[in-house]
Each structure stands twice: as C-alpha cells, then as structure tokens.
Amino acid sequence: MGIFGFFSKEKKETLDKGLEKSKSGIFEKISRAVVGKSSVDEEVLDELEEILISSDVGVDTTIKIIRRIEKRVAEDKYTSVEELDTILREETAALLEENNSQDVQNSFETDNLPKPYVLMVVGVNGVGKTTTIGKLAHNFQKNGKKVVLGAADTFRAAAVDQLKLWGERVGVDVIDHGMNTDPSSVAYDAVKVGVEKNADVIIIDTAGRLHTKVNLMKELGKIKRVMQKVLPEAPHEVMLVLDGSTGQNATIQAREFTKVTEINSLAITKLDGTAKGGVVIGISDEFKIPVKYIGIGEKMEDLQVFNKIEFVDSLFKKG
After folding, report:
1. Annotated binding-site residue? 77
2. Separation of CA 45 from chain center
3. Quick check: keyword Repeat in the entry (predicted)?
C-alpha cells in the first residue's frame, strides 16, 4: 500500500463515493489519452496536463505534477501506461506533503488546543458556511467537547435562523441577536458565554460580502478586537469555507479573502456533487494554508478531516 492506507475502511469508502464524479471524469479522459499507447511518452504527458487543468487542479500545480512525473519516467527509462495512475497518485501526494506539511489529523480533537478554542468562520454566501459550522459542532460534540456557536452573520436573516436550527439539531447553545444587529456584539457575547460555560470550542459565523472588501476587512477586524476584550488571544483560528463545485471560482475567492484577513485553515464543501474535485489539490498547493476539512455529502459525518494522501488516492485510483 506504500504511503496510502491511513483511513478506516468506512471513512475511505465514504471518501471514494464522495469523489466518484471527479474520479470517473478524470479516468475516462486518461483512458482515452492512453488508447493504443504502451509507454508514457511526451504525447501522453501533454494529454495528462490538459486533463488535470480541465479538472481544476490549476495550471501552476499541474505543471509541478507533470514535471515530477517526467522526472520519474526519465529515471525509470520505460514506464507503461498501466503504471500511470500509480505514479500520478504518488507524485501528487508527495508534492502536497512537501508543500504543506502541517499536521491537521484528528482535528475534531481539542485536547492540545487552548480552552476555549475560538474558531472564526468566513466565506461568501452559498458556499455551505453555516452547514459546515453545524457539522463541525456535531463532530466536536461527538468527541465529547462542549460547543457554543455565535450567529454573527447578521446581514442575512436566513443565516441566523439556519444556525439556530443547527444548534437545536446538534444540541448546542447558539448566541444570536437577530438580523441587522452588530456582529461584533454577537461575537463578544458568544465568547463570554463560552468562557462562563467552560466550553471547549466557540465557533463564530460571520458575513462574507466580498463586493465590499473594505467594509468586510473593517468588520472582521472589529469582531476580532471585541472578542479579545473577553479572551485576548481570540480568535485562535480563522477558517475560510469554499464551495469546491465552483472550481476555479473557489481559488479566486481564496485569493480575495487572504487579502482582507489572515486565514489559517480551509474547508472545501460540496465535492460530492461535482467533477471539479481537483480544485482541492490546486488550492492546497497554491496557498500553503492547510485544507482542514472537506464536505463530501449531506450527512453530519460527511464533513471529513482532510487527509492529503487518502484524498489523492481516492481521486486518482483506477477502478
């Protein structure tokens, strides 16, 4: 199995199923590219380059992967097309391991984190931000952690209501002041309640309106400053949620958000409904910010801790 094989069988099956659309699209194209070929030559690699770019891996990351494969093929002198998927998996996984070595395994655990751990979540409307927060709350709670949520996306009534529904569903406290209220005031109260209730994790939902970048920067800055009145080191982490099904648009959003606030981690959602799963590889490589979670289905457990090696294995493994 080499470097692959860290996940439980059940998690791996869920990951394989969640990436089925992306995987089948890539392999149909690779199969067509190698028809009639016995070895991996320049023409095959040119085709593979096009396939990876069209799968939203991104141009720069694709070029890095192709160069690694070229080097491997040159060293091996002769490489059959049957070996291509194995080499593709191994070289892509190795690239991500080298570029982004931060360990985010077991990240539904908080034992080694400050208590309470304040996580501020950002992202534009429609990416699955509030749903991701609900699933995070569920998974932290399942690991025996006490969670408090703060509904600081006060720009949209639906966001506040949706977070309250998730709170009821999961069974965690949600602090809200309703719509069109000061988001920093909500964040302040959520942190205060979290400290008073001895919570392990406090998750703050925020509005994401990129078309007013200056206002967004000011708003996020104010939320941070106000939380720090209660807990000087808050927030410990700022997570950006991206919709994987939008492909390169997700990459553009990541670029824009990293300009307006410091982002420490990423969650990439909706990968089960798209053939654009390659975008996770490009984003992971380009931003050097850990992709911490991926969304591969509707169920609570379908928000998985991102494992670079297993992800690449599921995306590129034949059969």
Report:
1. no
2. 28
3. no
Q: What is the pTM of this model?
A: 0.92
With both helix axes pointing from N to C terminus, report the angle between 183-196 and 213-230 in degrees, rounded to the nearest 10. 30
14 is annotated as contributing to ligand binding: no
Residue 33 annotated in ligand binding? no
Strands (E), 188-311: 201-206, 237-243, 265-269, 291-295, 303-305
Q: Is 123 annotated as a binding residue?
A: yes
294 located within any domain: yes
Give the span between the Cα atoms of 301 and 103, in whole angstroms.
Answer: 21
Q: Domain check: are 32 and 159 in the same one?
A: no
196 shares its domain with 156:
yes
Same-domain status, 74 and 137 = no
Q: Report d(CA 102, CA 292) in Å as an integer.
A: 10
Would you say 5 is a known binding-site residue?
A: no
272 annotated ligand-binding residue? yes
Question: In this structure, are residues 194 and 227 in contact, taking their beta carbons and an 8 Å threshold?
Answer: no
Q: How many CB atoms lie within 10 A of CB 16?
A: 17
Residue 318: inside a domain: no
Structural domain that includes position 89:
9-99
pLDDT tens by residue, the chain, 319 residues: 334 444 578 889 999 999 999 999 898 899 999 988 888 999 999 999 999 999 999 999 999 999 999 999 998 877 888 899 899 999 999 998 887 655 544 568 788 899 999 999 999 988 999 999 999 999 999 999 999 999 999 988 789 999 999 999 999 999 999 999 999 999 999 999 999 999 999 999 998 776 567 788 889 999 999 999 999 999 999 999 999 999 999 999 999 899 888 999 999 999 998 989 999 999 999 998 889 999 999 988 899 999 888 999 999 987 6
For 178, other C-beta atoms within 10 Å of its C-beta total 11
Same structural domain for residues 38 and 128?
no
Residue 131 annotated as lining a ligand binding site:
no
